[in-house]
Specification:
Blueprint: H1 2-9, H2 13-22, H3 30-40, E1 50-54, H4 62-74, E2 81-85, H5 96-112, H6 120-133
Parallel strand pairs: 1-2
Helix pairs in contact: 5-6
Length: 166
């Protein structure tokens, strides 16, 4: 995406990267990092079921969702979290039907204490049933994204108090 945007703007990505590579490195203040850790990084300690119906939007990348899922797993709460992928463009590009499937899945988990079948075919069947009742919710775009590139740097509660500056 960056390469395409640079090309479209008539800019030289290689030249800009060379300038950045020669620039002095700036370390974060370890005290500021310690303060932000408590406010802006994941503990993964969720207390109830969570369904995230997500698309890989430019504001909140898919790799961040993987980092969150890993933090939840490290905290021993993976059984409370489900991540569904929708093929919608832009920030919050999920269809109303995609969200309705996530909501119904969450209600089922709250009512029964179990997720039940969360395979893509089962979720699509749930979507088809909801669409029969509420066709105005649009079309279902849930899909399997396949492998997702992990975030270059994940920072969660397991990293707290480890930053020393560089």
């Amino acid at each position: 995406m960056v390469e395409a945007l640079y090309k479209k703007a008539g800019l030289d990505l290689s030249a800009d990267l060379a300038v950045l590579a020669k620039a002095p490195r700036i370390s974060a203040d370890p005290k500021a990092v310690a303060k932000e850790e408590l406010q802006g990084s994941y503990t993964g300690k969720i207390k109830g079921p969570v369904v995230n119906v997500d698309n890989d939007d430019p504001v909140d990348a898919a790799s961040y969702k993987l980092s969150y899922a890993q933090a939840v797993k490290k905290a021993g709460a993976a059984n409370l979290f489900r991540l569904l992928w929708a093929d919608g463009a832009g920030h919050g590009g999920q269809s109303a039907l995609d969200r309705a499937v996530g909501f119904r899945l969450l209600i089922r988990r709250l009512d029964t204490g179990k997720w039940g079948d969360v395979s893509l075919p089962a979720l699509k069947a749930m979507g088809e049933q909801i669409a029969l009742e509420k066709p105005e919710l649009g079309r279902l775009t849930l899909f399997d994204p396949g492998p997702i590139t992990p975030a270059l740097f994940a920072w969660d509660a397991s990293n707290w108090r480890t930053y020393k500056g560089k």
